[in-house]
Amino acid sequence: MITMKNIIREGNDTLRAEAKKATFPLTDEQLQLAHDMMEFLENSQDPKIAEKYHLRAGVGLAAPQVDVSLQMASVLVPGPEGEAPLFKDTIVNPVIISHSVQGAALSEGEGCLSVDRDVPGYVVRHDRITLRYYDIDGNQHKIRLKNYPAIVCQHEIDHLHGILFYDHIDHEHPFTMENEDLVIE
Ligand code: 4LI
Ligand code: NI
Predict the structure, then answer these.
(1) Residue 178 above 90 pLDDT?
(2) What single string gives the DSSP state of each residue in 59-103?
(3) What letter would DSSP give residue 105?
(4) Strand 103-106, strand 182-184: pairing
(5) Where are the domains of the chain?
(6) Gyration radius of the chain's alpha carbons
(7) Can you give the pTM of this predicted structure?
(8) Which residues form the catalytic set?
(9) Which ligand number lies closest to the CA of residue 155?
(10) Is the CB of 57 under 6 A from ligand 1?
(11) CATH number belonging to the domain at 11-181, selected among 3.40.50.920, 3.30.565.10, 3.90.45.10, 1.20.1250.20
């Protein structure tokens, strides 16, 4: 099982590398990794399990964060209490094929399991994206996402290209945003 010990932190070069595209079929080791990454997100969102194993809660985890430089990330965005997740899948070789001009940012800024400090500021991303990706079985998906799930997927896709959320923050004016951009509560 993946715990915080397995998650590498800023300063590790793997987080700044361009991850390699996956080829299908995935190896047994890659399938196991996909399973373990999703299990980490589930565990991290379960208060009892998270406390027991000292897991920090996350909605996304990319393979480079566990020191595997491969274009694969798990995303688990919970829905309203008792309802289905807004988005749950392990995305392989994801590409944003189109996006809104309108930007959006989380009102409280972003956190990252690989960053052990608070970096305040708006991380302005695309509010809506069309995402093409493969699931772990090699089936192609083309989906539209907006708001929080779109933000999370963009954060995770950034990891596959060596980008960290604070690269997008204007550190001189961390909470300045275009009027047209959406603030997601
Ligand atoms: C407990 C159980 C306040 C501060 C609000 C917690 C289940 C920040 C937000 C969670 C913030 C769950 C999250 C991300 C932010 C902040 C990620 C809590 C887990 C909220 C996810 C990848 C950025 C994603 C909204 C510095 C580890 N996640 N909060 N950002 N949640 N979580 N990111 N921002 N301010 N990071 O962090 O998984 S995209 Cl689900
Ligand atoms: Ni991250």
Answers:
(1) no
(2) SEEEGGGGT--BSEEEEEE--STTS--SEEEEEEEEEEEEE-SSE
(3) E
(4) parallel
(5) 11-181
(6) 16
(7) 0.98
(8) 156
(9) 1
(10) yes
(11) 3.90.45.10
